[in-house]
């Protein structure tokens, strides 16, 4: 389950459910050498942070290994300096989603059951590129992408 969790974390890092964090009103502070006056409404772009090489090695590549514990056989030292705090799919602090633990558990259970039961294949003839065809404003704009669920052959059902 550790590798499945790492795959989900990496999926959420690259394909967040929203583009921006919750807005905050600045108390008046210096951020990265620039003064943000009191009362200015600020928010982070999760989309930009998740793709920033300052926080993640190979930021545009899908690399679940970055989320594995260092003692896992698939762990890659290349990602030891990644900053997991730049990835907060359920926010943090007092505004953190109270259902995040349930969401992780349900997502892992559902995905494990689907992948145990089916092989998932793209329907041929589709030309879709994430960078070209997906857009994010406040929410994702996604083109249709058809897949075929093929029951997994087990035991006597194998060819």
From TrEMBL:
Q: Name one GO molecular function term.
A: iron ion binding
Entry keyword set: Heme, Iron, Metal-binding, Monooxygenase, Oxidoreductase, Virulence
The UniProt entry, under Pfam families, shows: p450
State the source organism's domain of life: Eukaryota
Q: Which InterPro entries match?
A: Cyt_P450, Cyt_P450_CS, Cyt_P450_E_grp-I, Cyt_P450_sf, Cytochrome_P450_monoxygenase
List residues binding heme. Answer: 97
Cofactor(s) the protein requires to work: heme
Belongs to which family?
Belongs to the cytochrome P450 family.
* Protein name, entry field: Uncharacterized protein
């Amino acid at each position: 389950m550790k590798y499945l969790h790492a795959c989900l974390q990496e999926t959420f890092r690259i394909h967040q459910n929203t583009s921006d964090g919750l807005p905050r009103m600045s108390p008046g502070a210096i951020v990265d050498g620039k003064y943000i006056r009191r009362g200015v409404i600020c928010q982070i772009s999760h989309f930009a942070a998740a793709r920033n090489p300052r926080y993640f090695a190979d930021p545009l590549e899908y690399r679940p290994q970055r989320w594995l514990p260092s003692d896992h056989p698939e762990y890659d030292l290349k990602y030891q300096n990644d900053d997991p705090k730049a990835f907060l799919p359920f926010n943090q602090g007092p505004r953190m989603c109270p259902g995040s633990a349930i969401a992780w558990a349900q997502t892992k259970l559902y995905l494990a059951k689907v992948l145990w039961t089916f092989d998932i294949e793209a329907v041929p003839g589709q030309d879709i590129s994430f960078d070209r065809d997906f857009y994010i404003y406040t929410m994702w704009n996604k083109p249709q992408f058809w897949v075929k669920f093929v029951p997994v052959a087990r035991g006597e059902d194998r060819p």
